[in-house]
Design a protein that fits this description.
This protein has 2 domains: about 80 residues; about 280 residues, Farnesyl Diphosphate Synthase (Orthogonal Bundle). The protein contains 19 helices and no strands. The N and C termini lie far apart (about 100 Å). Helices cover about 75% and strands about 0% of the residues.
């Protein structure tokens, strides 16, 4: 077999004919000597070029074994490289797709102001539970009705937060450079697309569901919050502190609790319209707290607001005065919930839970006020996030007040 390989090799052809060439050189018939010498030279150049192209160095000596082993080594080294490359490519593709989706969801999460969406979600659950009159009401029908509101308002929240960031793009470069839009993590075009698509999806889902309280809830959120953010003549209401505070008060204090309750009461349970004591307590609590949120949200953003001509209460009255007005409103809200809880017609343990729970929340708020540095945007922003966390905790207590 070695002989067959030797005879088939182009290198060996010139080697095995070496004796004949020597004899021809000394014979009288040597007219082919120049052509054979040229052929041999061409063959050697061909072999050198071929060895360079394969990136494999081997010795060209007489005999076929060295050439054969060189080729075998090259094939053994090169063969695994092809499947290895393909396997790595296929293995990395799902990971790249997963990472891209994960990054997009993280950007979307920060784009939609998650603390407001969490608060609105808990508000939906709390107001819906106010329509529950007996344990059997908590049924699949209840959860279907709850899901209808949660999904439709999720897209409306995305629109409200999105349109605010789109028109506050320049201000957020100063006040909130960490957001996806001013930081460059989300392009302006994609932000506009997400915002518009969210509004379309929200109204589309509500029209399919067919609940009038839900449709009114979305309309009454869409109109004032669009006017709050959009920078066109007669709009951009956030420039007027009293009007801006009224929009936040109207949304969180009136629209959310009433429309969420009526959706569950009239559309899901098919019961007549009523305004129970628990709903009235929720409205009063949410209204006081919403006014405090409306005033305190501008405390960390005073620098950018002044530069772009937005005369908030913090810019007009000063951060310290507005801060203590907000703290007073929050404490008043917890006081209303405390009194309503201890005078509730529910059993004793519910009175204890609702009364003690609101005392604890009010105490946490008061205790944290002494650690707030009003000259530091980071400190005031941290306090603002604490306000939302306490608001969220209060929603767990409100449904027990009857």
């Amino acid at each position: 077999m070695d002989r067959a390989l030797v005879m088939s090799s182009p290198n060996v052809c010139s080697v095995t004919n070496g004796g004949n060439l020597w004899r021809r050189k000394h014979s009288t018939n040597n007219y082919n000597y120049p052509s054979l010498q040229q052929k041999r030279k061409t063959q050697i150049e061909y072999n050198i070029l071929r060895s360079q192209s394969l990136n494999h160095h081997y010795k060209c000596i007489e005999g076929g074994r060295t050439y054969q082993e060189s080729n075998i080594k090259y094939v053994v080294k090169a063969a695994p490289a092809i499947p290895s490359f393909g396997s790595e490519s296929h293995a990395s593709s799902p990971k790249n797709i997963f990472d891209s989706v994960k990054n997009f969801l993280a950007i979307l999460y920060n784009f939609c102001y998650p603390y407001t969406m969490i608060g609105r979600t808990l508000c939906t659950i709390s107001a819906s539970l106010l329509a529950v009159e007996k344990i059997s009401d908590i049924s699949p029908l209840f959860f279907i009705g709850l899901s209808q509101v949660l999904v439709a308002h999720f897209f409306m929240d995305l629109y409200i937060n999105g349109v605010n960031q789109v028109f506050d793009f320049e201000i957020d470069k100063i006040n909130k450079p960490y957001l996806p839009l001013p930081s460059g993590k989300l392009s302006f075009t994609n932000a506009v697309f997400i915002t518009v698509s969210s509004a379309v999806l929200s109204f589309g889902l509500s029209s399919i569901i067919g609940s009038r309280p839900l449709i009114w809830s979305l309309v009454l959120c869409f109109l004032p919050w669009t006017g709050y953010s959009v920078n066109v003549p007669m709009l951009r209401w956030k420039r007027y502190p009293l009007l801006a505070a009224m929009i936040i008060f109207f949304s969180w204090g009136i629209i959310f609790p009433i429309t969420f309750f009526l959706h569950m009461q009239t559309f899901v349970f098919k019961r007549p319209v009523i305004f129970p004591r628990s709903l009235i307590v929720t409205i009063v609590f949410s209204s006081l707290y919403a006014i405090g949120i409306a005033l305190s949200k501008d405390i960390p953003d005073i620098e950018g607001d002044k530069k772009f001509g937005i005369h908030s209460f913090s810019a007009r009255l000063g951060q310290k005065q507005v801060f203590w007005i907000c703290v007073s409103l929050f404490e008043m809200a917890f006081g209303v919930a405390f009194l309503a809880g201890v005078t509730s017609s529910a059993c004793l343990w519910i009175k204890i839970v609702t009364g003690l729970g609101n005392v604890i929340l009010a105490s946490i708020l008061w205790y944290q006020t002494k650690y707030v540095d009003l000259t530091s945007p980071a400190s005031t922003r941290s306090f603002y996030m604490l306000i939302w966390k306490l608001f969220d905790a209060a929603y767990f207590l409100l449904p027990f007040i009857r």
